[in-house]
Every structure is written in structure tokens, then in C-alpha cells.
Design goal:
By secondary structure, this protein is mainly alpha-helical. The chain has ten helices and no strands. The termini are far apart. This is ABC transporter permease.
């Protein structure tokens, strides 16, 4: 059975153009935004995917170049987390949760031999872990800083009772960690029931068995749970200590 999907060619081009055009028309008719939004996003995605496809085709052939690709992805993730957290220059500290999260999970996968030390395996697994950790870190920092701003009076009250500044802040920001971890937890709880995640589908499309697909997906999900939990815990601590703070 041919398991190939979305082969490059004229039918794919026509289908993508039709879907983008329909999205643009809906934007226009419903007045939910500028008509150019969907085509611009699609064009940007096409350019980025074309570029990364060419790079990966060469990079995945060697371990050192694969690690270099992962390092570049880490830099992009760190920049995105800093920008989304709205913490200004202090957001540079968010590199720490990201580094610890992926730096804990990927080596564990390699040392146990579950993930082979080949670029074709390291980059996809590392990329998924990094992407999920980036989202959790960004959301955690953003929610924690918003909580400090909205509940500043509670922090002042705790300080007046003799609590340290770190503990006073922690009482306010700790509950926000649950919000940051919720998407990852929901994904793990509903996998196979509500959605079939990308890693599972990817293995199936690559002619792997359903058992292989399930094994890869549970590896990714548990890796995400660990990386996100560590990253969010560290992010909350950094906010509580004032290392990460809102821009003036």
C-alpha cells in the first residue's frame, strides 16, 4: 500500500491556493481581519518550509550539523519566549528554563538508546520537545507577571506580615503554573481519544506500525511533560525572585 501523502505537484499547489483563497474570502466577508492576512501567512510558511527543507536535507546527514540545527532552533525558541513574555531585557533569564528542560530530556533519550544518535531522530524529537517547552515557558512567564501586576496589593500585604519578597511573590505567581501546564496535560490525557498527534501520524505515514507510532508518541508526550514541568517551575521561581519582571 502506498502511504505517501501530499506529494509535491500541481494538485497540491491548486488545493493549497484554493484553501488560502477561501480563507481570505471569509476574512473579507466576516470582517474578522484584513483579507491579506491568510495569504501572507501562507506565503511566509511556504518560504520558511522551503528553506528549512533544503537546510535539513543537508544537515541531517551528519550528527554535528544536526546538533547545530537544534541549536539554531533553540535560539529562535528563546527569542520567541522572551518576546511573548513582555519582560524586556530581564527575559534573557528565560533561556535557563528552556535550556534545562530540553537539556534534561534529550540527553536522557540518547543515553538510554531509545532515540538513536542520528540527526534524523534527534532533530524531530528535540524540536517537538523544544517547541512545547517554549510555549509553556512563555505562557508561564506571561501569566505570572500579569498576576503580580493585578494582585500587587496581596504582595504588599504579605510583605507587611513579615514574609520575604520572594515568598510574597511566590504566593501570587505559583497558581499560574497550572495554567501554563494545562495544554500539555490535556494533550497527554486526550491523546488517541480526541486527537492523533503529529509524531503518531508521522510514523504511520512513514509506513511504521501502529505500535511503533504509539511508542514514539508516548516518548514525546512524557518528554514534554518533564521538560515543561521543569521549565515552568524554574520560570515561576525566576519571576518570584524578581529576575524576570515586566518592562517599565
Amino acid at each position: 500500500m502506498n502511504s505517501s501523502l501530499a506529494e509535491p505537484g500541481l494538485p497540491l499547489v491548486v488545493l493549497c491556493l484554493v484553501m488560502v483563497a477561501l480563507a481570505a474570502i471569509i476574512y473579507r466577508v466576516s470582517s474578522i481581519g484584513r483579507m491579506i492576512t491568510a495569504p501572507a501567512a501562507a506565503l511566509r510558511g511556504f518560504v520558511q518550509l522551503a528553506a528549512i527543507s533544503l537546510v535539513l536535507a543537508a544537515a541531517l546527514a551528519h550528527l554535528w550539523s544536526s546538533l547545530l540545527v537544534l541549536l539554531v532552533m533553540f535560539g529562535a525558541a528563546a527569542f520567541t519566549s522572551i518576546r511573548r513574555s513582555e519582560s524586556g531585557r530581564s527575559g534573557i533569564w528565560l533561556i535557563v528554563p528552556l535550556a534545562v528542560g530540553i537539556g534534561l530530556v534529550v540527553p536522557l533519550c540518547l543515553l538510554t538508546g531509545v532515540v538513536p544518535a542520528h540527526g534524523i531522530a534527534i532533530v524531530p524529537v528535540g524540536g517537538i520537545i523544544l517547541g512545547g517547552t517554549m510555549t509553556a515557558t512563555s505562557l508561564s512567564a506571561r501569566r505570572a507577571l500579569a498576576a503580580l501586576s493585578d494582585r500587587h496589593g496581596e504582595v504588599e500585604a504579605a510583605l507587611s506580615l513579615g514574609m520575604t519578597e520572594r515568598d510574597s511573590r511566590l504566593e501570587v505567581v505559583r497558581p499560574t503554573a497550572n495554567d501554563a501546564l494545562l495544554p500539555g496535560l490535556d494533550q497527554t490525557r486526550t491523546v488517541g481519544l480526541v486527537t492523533l498527534p503529529g509524531a503518531f501520524v508521522g510514523v504511520l505515514l512513514a509506513s511504521g506500525s501502529a505500535l511503533q507510532a504509539g511508542a514514539v508518541q508516548i516518548l514525546v508526550l512524557t518528554g514534554l511533560l518533564l521538560a515543561q514541568t521543569v521549565a515552568v517551575a524554574l520560570t515561576v521561581e525566576l519571576v518570584a525572585r524578581g529576575s524576570v519582571h515586566r518592562r517599565p
